[in-house]
Amino acid sequence: MIIYTLKRLIEQISSKRKIQFLFLLVITVFSALLEMLSIYSIVPFIGLVTNENYIINTPYLEEFIELDSRNKAIIVSGLLFGSLYILNAISRIFLIYCTARLSYVVTAELSINMYEFKLLDSYSNYIVEKSSTIISAITQKSVQVGSVLGSIINCISGGIIFLCIVSILILINPQVMIISILFFVALYYLISLLSKKEINKSSKIINLSQNNVVKCLQDGIGAIRNIILDKSHNFYIKLFKKENFNLARNSAFLQFIQQSPRYILEALGIFLFVILLIYWNETKSKEEFLTIFPTLAALAVGAQRILPLLNTIYVNFISI
Question: pTM of the predicted model, to two decimals?
Answer without folding.
Answer: 0.72
